[in-house]
Amino acid sequence: MTDDELRQIANEVRKGVLTGVHAAKSGHPGGSLGAADIMTYLYFEEMNVNPADPRWADRDRFVLSKGHCAPGLYAVLAEKGFFAKEELATLRHIGSILQGHPNMNDTPGVDMSTGSLGQGISAAVGMALAARQWGQDYRTYALVGDGESEEGQVWEAAMFAGNQKLDNLCVVVDHNGLQIDGPVDEVNDPMPLADKFRAFKFHVIEVADGNDMAQLRAAFAEARATKGAPTAIIAETVKGKGVSFMENQVGWHGKAPNDEQFEQGMVELAANDAKEA
């Protein structure tokens, strides 16, 4: 796909995020909107997956370690065809296949149940190790938050992955600089992330604009070509990307838009459609 086509899909994903969180009257729009480009690139360009067979043994794996950004993952999965887009409006409703955090038992396309921060990357490391042990060619991708990187388990997993030289593992850090309690550098600053991953024997790629498809394309190509070490992509993103009043606003970490805000957001995203056209 071209970068323009991927941007158009990411814009539809953002509409899906707003639709779900507004319908649920709860959820996490900020991080979901900010990571929409990364997840769109993964599912529509980078990863080998089959919506008709979500449990296909040879598929690439994706673990949303920052599981609260489930609205973004669900919107991508719906765009890819794992389930009907109409399901997005059932987010967090009783009986829905789309709950507040990813559940691999209920949601087609979800490879790991996540939510407790720090644990998803450990599961991804296990998946990558299993592929090597079983002689399988699939790759594993994990999306980790910068605030999540304050968790010690992230670095235990990184230490193991680096020592095992798991070059079929790609960890993407969604570095938007904000977490639920405020700016990351004021809560419990985990910087410098790039140096930390290098210390744990990762190949590190720093992406200045993680919302830019061309930069993501180059980063994932470099990651795929890297042998003998796992890769960490540190991607600078804008929390709330695409909706002006949500961008870089920590208050939109875990708050649903009201009717007026939802309409304004959807109008802005529709305007983005016109720009892409």
UniProtKB/TrEMBL annotation:
The keyword Metal-binding applies. Residues 8-264 form the Transketolase N-terminal domain. It holds the Pfam family Transketolase_N. SUPFAM superfamilies: Thiamin diphosphate-binding fold (THDP-binding). The keyword Ribosomal protein does not apply. Its cofactor is thiamine diphosphate. Keywords: Metal-binding, Thiamine pyrophosphate, Transferase. Belongs to the transketolase family. This is Transketolase.
